[in-house]
Amino acid sequence: MKLTRTRLWILLVIVALLAGFLIWANQYTSKRDALEHALNDKMNNAVNTVQHSAVERVKVEDPSNPHFIVNMNHEDIQSFVTRELLEQLNNDSSVPPIKLTHYQITQLKDIDVYADVKYTTVFGITKTVSAHLTVPVVRFKDEAGDEVLK
Hints:
alpha+beta; three-stranded antiparallel β-sheet; two-stranded antiparallel ribbon; 2 helices; 24% strand
């Protein structure tokens, strides 16, 4: 079968479109993965920063090892974590403009942090990235938080 000029051009256009789609898909997934990694990293940093800098700690009456922890279920502490997270995300130049749509912190044995962010891709298409992170509770020896228990 002989390829005519028209068929050759059609074949080249199809190959070029396929290559363009693959490049776009690769860029989209790498941008999404980078945003997800940055979000997890910043959430971890924000929770740990607040645990070490919070003024108010509650005593845990463990018979073998009494200690103090930050109550992450308290609204003021959660607001502080949210502000810290947004500040860190805004200061990171690798993070595209995002909108934090959902944010939740729960603390039982560990601290569970959930976050959903929206960002804009090509042609104004909005995408959502969800992140979940479990951060261990930092146990302090005294209420001042000067010494961390191992």
